């Protein structure tokens, strides 16, 4: 598990404090102060000084780099004999062959050995002010109990356990327990329907599902056990359902069900990393569970929503838990921006050091607000680009030298060991700056995906074949004259208006700068003359009153001024909500289907955050297309 970039400096400090570096007395002298601060291991890299030199070393001497990191930061049961054996063009990705480790041992036992009473988890329960802290020792105990239970019910190495739970300590312990006994885990977001859950259980062929009697989020109770009962009816592999109690409510139990015991709580202080994603998404896996725990950090499990019981929830939580790093999604930032600054200013945010953003391009307005209002202009905002397939952050403004700039809304700098490249339409690497292309990664790194479960051929076709020898991300990016990267959105979303190719993110960024606009989604639709026309879906800020014609005029003038006339929307539809995934990404695919009047192939909408948003859009679009604009 690779470190989040924000952790590197902190890790260096912790490592010194904990004596990890004792066996490397010349760390600071040989690597130079700067380099050791980024990464203590750099001390062993002859002649490397400063962030840029370390980044260069990490890609040109990739094997030495990753071997040093792997040896220093992880405890191995058996050391590896070969650092890597990869061939991207064939989809062969093998790292650390011969080596054996247990990630749960690295997240728990290693930390318990160093500092058993440090707080590992702070569970920020939906009920405000009732947080619960777990030390590394307690989390290890809980994990061992779940692991034993799984073994007792026949789970073996290589099996896959389905976890259908909200973000909570027992869910983390269940993930780590699976890893401990060599089983895989299939964490399904606890808002998914019985049908969506059943499909994922069948795919994983799980014999065990772990769930809770009920879930609580945003003050609403969800019947998790009931959903599991329905789902498992069509899942013949399931033999047992483990049920933990989140509320007092007793739910019907059958012979198949196993009630899990309660555990012990205790309260301690510690450093606090607050990633407010759901553990059902990759951000939750890497930056709530494995990343922070493997580095001995204290991690927050946020069970609630950004607006429950009011839009000050995040910042009240920051004040109460003294969160140092806050990591969230642009969609939530845009939502909170709509409610105004007073919800932020009410709370003391002096504990905050770094603000992170992930999941989508962060538009300029949201970035500025996050930086100026939330971070009081003193916390760096890091726009981190990565994907489920990359395992961890690949491009981010930090780490950087202390005086280096951060450009709003740009992921900017490749992380250590990552070599991004841009490809042109002919599949050639573009070497110049100030250019846009398809974002690929030129060489393998240990955290990357190795295959798709039960479908290696699809893995090869999707990621390895489009640009042979390179890992294809599916995203487009722009490289600035200074060599910084900016993500322009999914390549499937790129619009081609009369031969001008433009990313949806670029137009949305400008549309969102209109004072009346809270957020927007832009898509291309087929146009007889221009090839593609531009259609913008716009959500207005709270209590905003503006005449539609005035809004269109404003939009046209700002888009033609900041981009060009060809980028002005042909259609603008005002909507109350945009269709989004549960992790907050705008589903432009659904919008395209509505505009193409292809309603039969909208796909499974139950995985949307709010499926009813689509109905409003269908109706709104029908009006526009009959009356014109
Ligand atoms: C971590 C995560 C991956 C896709 C990715 C890209 C988009 C993520 C972004 C970003 C612009 C950023 N994305 N971070 N776009 N700027 N900082 O989100 O994983 O759910 O797999 O999504 O999200 O399009 O390809 P995942």
TrEMBL record:
<dbReference type="GO" id="GO:0005739">
    <property type="term" value="C:mitochondrion"/>
</dbReference>
<keyword id="KW-0067">ATP-binding</keyword>
<dbReference type="InterPro" id="IPR042099">
    <property type="entry name" value="ANL_N_sf"/>
</dbReference>
<dbReference type="Pfam" id="PF00501">
    <property type="entry name" value="AMP-binding"/>
</dbReference>
<keyword id="KW-0547">Nucleotide-binding</keyword>
<dbReference type="GO" id="GO:0006085">
    <property type="term" value="P:acetyl-CoA biosynthetic process"/>
</dbReference>
<feature type="domain" description="AMP-dependent synthetase/ligase">
    <location>
        <begin position="251"/>
        <end position="445"/>
    </location>
</feature>
<feature type="domain" description="Acetyl-coenzyme A synthetase N-terminal">
    <location>
        <begin position="53"/>
        <end position="107"/>
    </location>
</feature>
<dbReference type="GO" id="GO:0005524">
    <property type="term" value="F:ATP binding"/>
</dbReference>
<dbReference type="GO" id="GO:0003987">
    <property type="term" value="F:acetate-CoA ligase activity"/>
</dbReference>
<protein>
    <recommendedName>
        <fullName>Propionate--CoA ligase</fullName>
        <ecNumber>6.2.1.1</ecNumber>
        <ecNumber>6.2.1.17</ecNumber>
    </recommendedName>
</protein>
<feature type="domain" description="AMP-binding enzyme C-terminal">
    <location>
        <begin position="506"/>
        <end position="585"/>
    </location>
</feature>
<feature type="domain" description="AMP-dependent synthetase/ligase">
    <location>
        <begin position="109"/>
        <end position="235"/>
    </location>
</feature>
<comment type="similarity">
    <text>Belongs to the ATP-dependent AMP-binding enzyme family.</text>
</comment>
<dbReference type="Pfam" id="PF13193">
    <property type="entry name" value="AMP-binding_C"/>
</dbReference>
<dbReference type="GO" id="GO:0050218">
    <property type="term" value="F:propionate-CoA ligase activity"/>
</dbReference>
<dbReference type="InterPro" id="IPR045851">
    <property type="entry name" value="AMP-bd_C_sf"/>
</dbReference>
<dbReference type="InterPro" id="IPR032387">
    <property type="entry name" value="ACAS_N"/>
</dbReference>
<dbReference type="InterPro" id="IPR000873">
    <property type="entry name" value="AMP-dep_synth/lig_dom"/>
</dbReference>
<keyword id="KW-0436">Ligase</keyword>
<dbReference type="InterPro" id="IPR025110">
    <property type="entry name" value="AMP-bd_C"/>
</dbReference>
<dbReference type="Pfam" id="PF16177">
    <property type="entry name" value="ACAS_N"/>
</dbReference>
């Amino acid at each position: 598990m690779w470190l989040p970039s924000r952790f590197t400096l902190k890790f260096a400090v912790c490592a010194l404090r904990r004596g990890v570096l004792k066996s490397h007395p010349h760390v600071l002298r040989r690597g130079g102060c700067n380099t050791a601060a980024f990464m203590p291991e750099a001390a062993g890299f002859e002649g490397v000084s400063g962030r840029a030199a370390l980044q260069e070393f990490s890609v040109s001497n990739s094997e030495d780099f990753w071997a040093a990191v792997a040896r220093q930061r992880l405890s191995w049961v058996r050391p590896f004999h070969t650092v890597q054996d990869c061939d991207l063009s064939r989809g062969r990705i093998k790292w650390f062959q011969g080596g054996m480790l247990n990630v749960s041992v690295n997240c728990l036992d290693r930390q318990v050995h160093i500092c058993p009473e440090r707080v590992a988890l702070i569970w920020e329960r939906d009920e405000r002010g009732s947080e619960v802290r777990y030390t590394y020792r307690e989390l290890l105990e809980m994990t061992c109990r779940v692991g034993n239970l799984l073994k007792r019910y026949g789970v073996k190495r290589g099996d896959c356990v389905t976890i259908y739970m909200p973000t909570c300590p027992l869910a983390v312990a269940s993930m780590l327990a699976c890893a401990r006994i060599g089983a895989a885990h299939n964490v399904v977001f606890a808002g998914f329907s019985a049908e969506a859950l059943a499909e994922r259980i069948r795919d994983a062929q799980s014999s065990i599902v772990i769930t809770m009697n009920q879930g609580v989020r945003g003050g609403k109770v969800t019947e998790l056990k009931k959903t599991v009962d329905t789902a498992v009816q069509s899942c013949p592999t399931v033999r047992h359902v483990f049920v933990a109690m989140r509320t007092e409510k007793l739910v019907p139990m059958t012979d198949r069900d196993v009630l899990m015991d309660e555990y012990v709580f205790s309260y301690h202080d510690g450093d606090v990393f607050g990633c407010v994603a759901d553990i059902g998404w990759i951000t939750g896996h890497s930056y709530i569970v494995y990343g922070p725990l493997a580095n001995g950090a204290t991690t927050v499990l946020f069970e609630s929503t950004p607006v429950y019981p009011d839009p000050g929830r995040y910042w009240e939580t920051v004040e109460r838990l003294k969160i140092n790093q806050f990591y969230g999604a642009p969609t939530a930032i845009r939502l909170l921006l709509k409610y105004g600054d007073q919800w932020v200013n009410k709370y003391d945010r002096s504990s905050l050091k770094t603000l992170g953003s992930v999941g989508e391009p962060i538009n300029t307005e949201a970035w500025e607000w996050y930086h100026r209002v939330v971070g009081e202009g003193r916390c760096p905002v890091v726009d981190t680009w990565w994907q489920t397939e990359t395992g961890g952050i690949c491009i981010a403004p930090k780490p950087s030298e202390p005086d280096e700039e951060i450009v709003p809304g740009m992921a900017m700098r490749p992380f250590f060991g990552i070599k991004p490249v841009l490809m042109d339409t002919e599949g050639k690497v573009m070497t110049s700056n100030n250019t846009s292309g398809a974002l690929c990664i030129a060489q393998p790194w240990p955290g990357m995906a190795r295959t798709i479960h039960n479908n290696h051929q699809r893995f090869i076709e999707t990621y390895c074949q489009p640009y042979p020898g390179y890992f294809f991300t599916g995203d487009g990016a722009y490289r600035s004259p200074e060599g910084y990267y900016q993500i322009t959105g999914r390549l499937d979303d790129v619009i081609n208006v009369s031969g001008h190719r433009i990313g949806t993110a670029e137009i949305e960024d400008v549309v969102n700068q209109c004072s009346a606009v809270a957020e927007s989604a832009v898509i291309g639709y087929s146009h007889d003359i221009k090839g593609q026309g531009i259609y913008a879906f716009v959500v207005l800020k709270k209590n905003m009153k503006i005449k539609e014609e005035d809004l269109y005029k404003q939009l046209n003038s700002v888009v033609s001024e900041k981009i060009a006339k060809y980028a002005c929307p042909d259609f603008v539809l005002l909507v109350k909500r945009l269709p989004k995934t549960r992790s907050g990404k705008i589903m432009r695919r659904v919008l395209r289907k509505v505009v193409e009047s292809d309603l039969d192939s909208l796909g499974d909408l139950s995985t949307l955050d709010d499926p009813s948003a689509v109905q409003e859009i269908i109706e709104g679009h029908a009006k526009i297309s009959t009356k014109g604009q």
